[in-house]
User: Fold this.
Amino acid sequence: MSSERVPVELSKGVNSFEKIILREIRGSSAEVYLHGGHVTSWKNENGEELLFVSSKALFKPQKAIRGGIPICFPQFSNHGPLEQHGFARNRIWSIDTDPPAFPTNSSSKAHIDLILRPSEEDIKIWPHSYEFRLRVALGPGGDLMLISRIRNTNTDGKPFTFTFAYHTYFSVSDISEVRVEGLETLDYLDNLQNKERFTEQGDAITFETEVDKIYLSTPTKIAILDHEKKRTFVIRKDGLPDAVVWNPWDKKAKAIVDFGDDEYKHMLCVEAAAIEKPITLKPGEEWRGRQELSAVASSYCSGQLDPQRVLQGS
Ligand SMILES: O=P(O)(O)OC[C@H]1O[C@H](O)[C@H](O)[C@@H](O)[C@@H]1O
Assistant:
């Protein structure tokens, strides 16, 4: 039987970790590991990989995969007492066979619903009960959608508070040929300067050194223009006001064990996030955070593209 047309397939990935492969009829695909609820691959109709995963990525228990889309929950980075980026990215998620309905029905057959609930060990680290439902869906045009629904299921009447990010690693041809549009003139916290607050200048963002910034209250659309590849990624987000931009550059790259020395040239993290204003849920309350990624061919030459058209077009 040809597996080509099966929209959702359960398979074994690296180190026999279980993964789900999503296939859209026109040829695009995505892969999601139960380890971390982690998207590790997103390919367009021509089979080109759109996400970066390090050649040194470790697929090990209790360790996050370097690349793809790690989920940072219940804490972004070191903004709190928990381990860096929280624990959701290195826990084993389950397939959610009977997820509550979505208000708008996704027309895509190629989707998977995952769920994470705390283990007894997790409750010792973060003393709360929750259900974290994640839907990963491939749209008909190959768009990749992630929807998170987090519900407080505490029975002790206590609210909980968290920060969150989809830590997406985009694959780019050459970081020095890339620009990000949609974050100009915004305020940001600079992680390289004690999270101090600054205001971005008016120009699109380009890269010539290490960057680790949390842009605050951003527009719902951000574009990453890859000049050399003639490709533009568009990120659309909902419920996620902030956006982190990260590239470790050469020095930090060498210090990251599961990252190649030169790989910083071929990746850029733009992370839809809720950080500055943490989310608080009372028992029974649910939060949603959605990210939709699309990759479109762009015939960009310097000065030719009107950024407003990229950002305002549908
Ligand atoms: O190495 P990790 O724990 O995956 O974190 C990688 C990076 O994630 C985010 O982008 C943070 O803003 C950075 O400060 C951090 O270095």
Observations:
- The first helix runs from residue 120 to 125.
- Confidence is low (pLDDT under 50) at residues 300-305.
- The chain has one domain: 8-312.
- Residues 64, 77, 84-85, 167, 191, 212, 244, 246, 269 surround 6-O-phosphono-alpha-D-glucopyranose (CB under 6 Å).
